[in-house]
Amino acid sequence: MTGFAYHRPSSLDDALAALAERGSLPIGGGSDLLAAVEEGRTAPTRVVELEHIPELATITVQSDGGVRIGAGVRIASLAEAPELAAFPVLRAACSAVGSPALRAMGTLGGNLGQRQRCWYFRSGVGCFKNGGTGCAAVDGEHVYHAILASGTCHAAHPSDPAVALLALDARVEVRSIRGSRMLDIAALYEGAADNARSETVLAKDEVIVAVHLGAAARDGAQHWEKLTQRRAFDLALVSCAGVRHTDGSVRIALGGVAAGPWRAPHSVEEDIASGGLDDESIEALAARAMYDATPLAGNAYKVQMAEAAIRRAARAISI
Ligand SMILES: Cc1cc2nc3c(=O)[nH]c(=O)nc-3n(C[C@H](O)[C@H](O)[C@H](O)COP(=O)(O)OP(=O)(O)OC[C@H]3O[C@@H](n4cnc5c(N)ncnc54)[C@H](O)[C@@H]3O)c2cc1C
Fold this sequence. Notes:
- Strand 2 (24-27), helix 2 and strand 3 form a beta-alpha-beta unit.
- The model has no long low-confidence stretch (mean pLDDT 96).
- The strands form 3 sheets. The chain has a 5-stranded antiparallel β-sheet. It has a 4-stranded antiparallel β-sheet with strand order 9-10-11-12, sandwiched between helices. A 3-stranded parallel β-sheet has the order 1-3-2, with helices on one face.
- The chain is 29% helix and 18% strand.
- Helix 4 (88-95) packs antiparallel against helix 8 (161-167) and helix 11 crosses helix 12 (301-317).
- It is built from 12 helices and 12 strands.
- With 319 residues, it is α+β, with helices and mostly antiparallel strands.
């Protein structure tokens, strides 16, 4: 393992200045980053700790009912946060992350910024994400990989919270010394399959400082499901978040199927929102949602799983 300096900034400005320097990387709980350093996939000269910066460590309910979640808040705290009682889909997704130890260490920012858990990538095979070309999983072992491939890499993104956040229309607040910007959670992962350096669009000096939930997603019908091979300490084969917003519109998001969290086609969401669906139409909608799936030889089972998860979500949030 190569050595690196550890910087504990006293303020966000201090952290952003440190992150602007070449070789610096942000660290949340370190549960992914330190493994990457140990495995030789990355070699920061300095890591910049984010979790003790006050504005990154708190959850704030805004006057309009929206919520701002600091990126340094631990996953375990999110799973039980009273401030998130009106967003049960996010609490359930956080409860489903890994194991109690990972939830206790992992932060929201680190969870969204974590790298793919593809075994070829993690074990240093010279694939596209490791400085090589192509995706070793296509002709290799890909039982856990994406069924909605959108580029070179076929890994499926591991974040559970990202799936719930997509269904909640969450926005991500990103900062660097150059300024700040807000991104839709979907935009955060745009081009993930064709980006070798990261699964997010963040520039090297940018960090997620907070995630914002709008009031429009409060208290509506919300549904979460994570299908795994074993009951604990496992990544999603397929996960599904369904949310009915206060205006009656519906979002269906899936995990385990694409390079980032994936949202069902708008026409499917609109038909679910219109309500009055019988079993036959729900079945047809779920099949339509998966129409563009292009599974590999060994993971077509995920298409059926995704359809089943969408059917259950549609029933749970239907009127
Ligand atoms: C065995 C195992 C099983 C897991 N299972 C699941 C699971 O089922 N579901 C799930 O959702 N997750 C799972 N995880 C992920 C885990 O729960 C953590 O959320 C994740 O490892 C990262 O959290 P962290 O705060 O420790 O991030 P770190 O390791 O500190 O950082 C991860 C990456 O994000 C970057 N980063 C950190 N903070 C920020 C920020 N604020 N802005 C931008 N980038 C940032 C770092 O530079 C690094 O590249 C699993 C992890 C392991 C090791």
